Amino acid sequence: MASDVRVTAAVAKVLAVLLADPDTDRYGLDLMRATGHPSGTLYPILLRLQRAGWVSAHWEEIDPVVAGRPPRRYYRLTPDGTVAARTAVAALYESLTRGYEPKGPVTAPTTTMSLGSA
User: Fold this and answer.
1) Reported pTM
2) Is residue 104 classed exposed, middle or buried when 0-12, 13-18 and 19+ CB atoms within 10 A define those classes?
3) Is the dihedral of CA 78, 15, 34, 73 positive or negative?
4) Is residue 83 a contact partner of residue 109, using CB atoms and an 8 Å limit?
5) Is 28 helix (H, G, I), strand (E, B) or coil?
6) How much is the CA Rg of the chain, to the nearest whole Å?
7) DSSP 49
8) What is the pLDDT of residues 56-85, one digit of tens each?
9) Which residues contact residue 62 at a Cβ distance below 8 angstroms, ignoring those fewer than 6 apart?
10) Gap between the Cα atoms of 37 and 29, Å rounded
11) Within 13 Å and on the Cβ side, how many CA atoms surround 65?
12) Residues 76, 18 contacting (CB under 8 angstroms)
């Protein structure tokens, strides 16, 4: 199943958010905030993941008038999708880090700003 979806960095970001808590339903706006993806990026990814069987989706059953908002569509990894997502994200990570050997300890860069003297 891992070959059903081409896992790009954008797809991996969505999968990472879903994998953080695979048993939790997440709705679109929540996923957009968590991934930083706009709707035009997020929803096509979710649709591909659904078609591959990695993600299931369902509409919230509420009365929009009582709730004061439209119903949400919730997304969740399927059991097979959880396994496939973990495998695919790990493979992407491994391919991105293959051959990378840091020289010495890895630390954040530091900068010293000098405003000069007037």
Assistant:
1) 0.78
2) exposed
3) negative
4) no
5) helix
6) 20
7) H
8) 999 999 999 999 999 999 999 999 999 999
9) 71
10) 10
11) 0
12) yes
